[in-house]
Amino acid sequence: MVYTYGFGESATVLLSYGLIILAILLTLGAQLFVTATYKKYVKVPNSRGITGAQAARYYLDQHGLQSVGVVQGSGFLSDHYDPTSRTVTLSPDVYSKASIASVAVACHECGHAVQHQEGYFFMNIRSALVPIVNVCSYLGYIAIVIGALASMTNLIWLGIMAEMVILLFQVVTLPVEVNASRRAMRDVQSSNILCMGSEISQAKTVLTAAAMTYLASVAATLLQVLRLILIFGRRRN
Questions:
Q1: Do 199 and 47 contact (CB within 8 A), yes or no?
Q2: Cα 112–chain centre separation
Q3: What is the pLDDT of residues 186-217, one digit of tens each?
Q4: What totals of helices (H) and strands (E) does the chain contain, helices first?
């Protein structure tokens, strides 16, 4: 059977490309925004001269987390908390510089350690989804491609469902990240790690910019799922 495009199908193709472009623009725009914001405030020293590593250590100790390590990693904005090894890894600039951005990012990552300690609901769900998402990220598009080539509709929809699991994971990640930032800013203020006023406001700006990347990821994945449904929902074997 020769498959031809009618007017409706042409519109679908154009819309699908539009969704791709929009997803790329959202992701790229968020990355550029957080990078520009971080680079701006990593050059702004905090008045107490506290490095990210020092802020992280103080934050963790205040919450009784002396067993959680703080180490220097590599790469740009590669900061993260590993619940398996119970380690906060900070990128070189965050670890060593006494800037507004360094303290904000370091305390945000420590917020995840506190979430882990307290058994924060959304973090538990996120952790449970990690192995499933690892499988879905590899098999989702493989199933879609093979299903499309072999005209196996069920396999295509299995791939789309895998993409929906990834979307669910990203949606669950949002409250985890927002909550970590709120914890960080609350404790930064109460412990006077940063001075009240402009330094707190600047730190919030850094963390808000970082949150935009997670929001953009959710939007981009949602657009991608809609695009797949739009394309394959119209096709018949």
A1: yes
A2: 13
A3: 988 888 888 878 899 999 999 999 999 999 99
A4: 7, 3
Q: Which helix (H) or strand (E) holds 18?
A: helix 7-41
Q: What does pTM read for this prediction?
A: 0.86
Structural element, H or E, at residue 89: strand 87-90
Phi, psi of 84, deg, nearest 5: -70, -50
Active-site option among 9, 109, 118, 163? 109
Q: Is 109 a catalytic residue?
A: yes
Q: What are the tens digits of pLDDT across the range 95-124?
A: 999 999 999 999 999 999 999 999 999 999
CA distance linking residue 144 with residue 160, whole number of Å: 7
Q: Report helix angle 7-41 to 100-118, nearest 10.
A: 110
Start-to-end C-alpha separation, the chain: 10
